[in-house]
User: Fold this.
Amino acid sequence: MQLVDGFARIGEENAFAVLARAQELASAGKDVINLGIGQPDFQTPAHIVEAAVQALKNGEHGYTPATGIPALKEAVAAELNERYSGANVSPDSVAIVPGGKVTMFAAILMFGEPGVEILYPDPGFPIYRSMIEFTGATPVPIPIRESNGFAFSASETLSLINEKTRLLILNSPANPCGGITPKEEIDKLVAGLESHPNVTILSDEIYDRMVYDNEQHTSLLTYASIKDRLILLNGWSKTYAMTGWRLGYSIWPDECLDAMRKLAVNAWSCVNTPAQFAALAAITGPQDSVTTMVDTFDERRRYVVEALNQLPGVSCITPKGAFYAFPNIKDTGWQSKKLATALLEEAGVATIGGPDFGILGEGYLRVSYANSLPNIKLAVERINHFLNENSPA
Ligand SMILES: Cc1ncc(COP(=O)(O)O)c(C=O)c1O
Assistant:
């Protein structure tokens, strides 16, 4: 059997392996606190679940148009236009997809091939690099530095662009570092992109509603100068605690729309129909569950940052978005992945080693605070005990 070359290069997401190991340890009777996984520890709000149930009862269980039911595409466009003045999103440019990941999969497939370069954040969501490698394109990491508050640097990003660059992937608020790129920096980046008209931009804004300390999320949708080459990735997974529903949406420039529709027809036909009705209820219904969830994350964020900073050899800057802290562990003397494994196996705390998000992740751990405050407290106590009792392996 000979698989195409891409499968020798495709990567994966270690968070899923850590989750599986944590579950295995738990079923063997070990008490494990999971600060590894990137999913809200909240229930999908009841009115959203009810909308899916009602849809099924109403007989909404057949195929829909490949890029989604018109009412949902209209609602997505209306919601974005209301939230971001100047966005001017047309319902026709919306594609409903089975999860946020599917937009990156589609965009990278559309632009990646041998001989071209694709820029992506490092540390960053691991699937960007994995998919770039799959297509045979050259992955070019954009350093996301702690010294820059884990934000993109416009000048550094622009300096990496050359005539081979075809796609630029941005992510703010960001996984795994929790950084938010300030508006002034995005202004500079977009101004610089005017000299590179052949570069398409994929902006992953899946954490757009998870911002703290009165930060404002700046959507790339608000920049008219790049509208004809911007792909926006977003979805319901994080905002409405719907990771398992597999629901996402993207906004596509006119030139890509038909390619996107054809990809959907070839691969998934349409998104699960009752889930689309649930998605509609999520964005048109009450938003208080989102506020409550974000307020809860905020409280945990403050706690976890303070607690991590008390640990020997650990320092942690305050993340401004998403639900991750990215503590610097260099002074513990531990290598990141060794420490993450030891914490899971010996201390019963799941975290993810920084290198699972890119080369620049060495020296860091990703700590998801999508877990209850008592669990987070206990987890940090366990880490403290472990670091005090064990020398670096
Ligand atoms: C930055 C980022 N983009 C996209 C996704 C994918 O989201 P989904 O679960 O909807 O596929 C994630 C999930 O962790 C993420 O962190």
